[in-house]
UniProtKB/TrEMBL annotation:
This is ABC-2 type transport system ATP-binding protein. Coiled coil: none annotated. Keywords: ATP-binding, Nucleotide-binding, Transport. It comes from the Bacteria. SUPFAM superfamilies: P-loop containing nucleoside triphosphate hydrolases (SSF52540). Residues 5-228 form the ABC transporter domain. CDD domains: ABC_DR_subfamily_A (cd03230). GO terms for molecular function: ATP binding; ATP hydrolysis activity.
């Protein structure tokens, strides 16, 4: 299977407000995908549609080759933003529940992870630290041996050390189980550390998507004497522009060499790239871009 998630014209509406609009993207298999964007951009809505917790208002979404929320649900692991656990249940209770609900549950993975994390099987989840609850939720998601693991800002409330440990454990699981992962995060540093594919979501629309290495290789910041960006060659697509009386600074996307000697050309960091797309005016015609992950500050 070449893709684990496909959306075509996908939309979700609450009353008169579109939480996600005209979303078309392909998420390749075998990648760790970073989904970034500002609060309210539609990230959680997209992920909830992917795992079958919501139904689309328009368009379609397939996961692992089948409509989201159908028989493929057993092959999808999900860790929500609040890393849900049951406060009155012990760690052992969570593992027993995971084994009962998931036909492909791998007890050895669960046991080894709990031992390595140093969690007391008798400890109630409500008495665990935020980092420990997140690790318990990740253990439950991984131990069902999913083909796709969906993580909705699982480290948002963790301190830097707990966040790093969580992402390290995630990367180990990806390597050991050959997982495909979609990770929503508001921290570009987390995406840069763990992801190889990016999707940027702004104002309920996908702004750009692609391999991070390719995106960084095809985006540039150029600065020089002030000029109208419409005068640029057609192969140079302007993502953002700022001007003073004498100077123009543009972020552009192009696969062609930049030959104009008047421009000073520099590469972008991943954060620069994400912020350039987040700062774009939202317009329906922009959604013709290929899918990109969201980035948040």
């Amino acid at each position: 299977m070449n893709t684990v998630l496909q959306a075509q014209g996908l939309g979700k509406k609450y009353g008169r407000r579109w939480a996600l609009s005209d979303c078309t993207l392909d998420v390749p298999a075998g990648r760790v995908v970073g989904l970034v964007g500002p609060n309210g951009a539609g990230k959680s809505t997209l992920l909830h549609l992917a795992v079958g917790m919501l139904t689309p208002t328009s368009g379609s979404i397939t996961v692992l080759g089948e409509p989201a929320g159908t028989s493929q649900r057993a092959k999808v692991g999900f860790v929500a933003q609040d890393t849900p656990t049951y406060s009155r249940m012990s760690v052992a209770d969570h593992l027993r529940l995971g084994a009962r609900l998931n036909p492909d549950w791998d007890e050895s993975i669960a046991t080894k992870r709990i031992e390595r994390l140093g969690l007391d099987l008798k400890q109630r989840a409500g008495r665990l630290s935020g980092g420990q609850r997140a690790q318990l939720a990740l253990t439950l998601g991984i131990s069902k041996r999913p083909e796709l693991l969906v993580l909705d800002e699982p480290v948002a409330a963790l301190d830097p050390l707990a966040r790093r440990e969580f992402l390290q454990d995630l990367m180990e699981a990806v390597a050991e189980q050959e997982l495909s992962v979609v990770l929503s995060s508001h921290l570009v540093s987390d995406v840069e550390r763990s992801c190889d594919f990016l999707i940027v979501l702004v104002d309920s629309r996908v702004q750009v998507s692609g391999e991070i290495e390719t995106l960084l290789a095809t985006h540039y910041r150029i600065s020089g004497p002030r000029r109208d960006e419409k005068s640029l060659p057609s192969a140079q697509h302007v993502i953002s522009a700022s001007h003073t009386d004498r100077q123009s600074t543009l972020v552009i996307r192009t696969e062609q060499p930049i030959l104009d000697p008047a421009w000073t050309v520099s590469r972008l960091s991943l954060e620069d790239l994400v912020l350039a797309y987040m700062g774009r005016p939202s317009a329906p015609e922009q959604n013709n871009h290929r899918p990109v992950l969201e980035v948040q500050r």
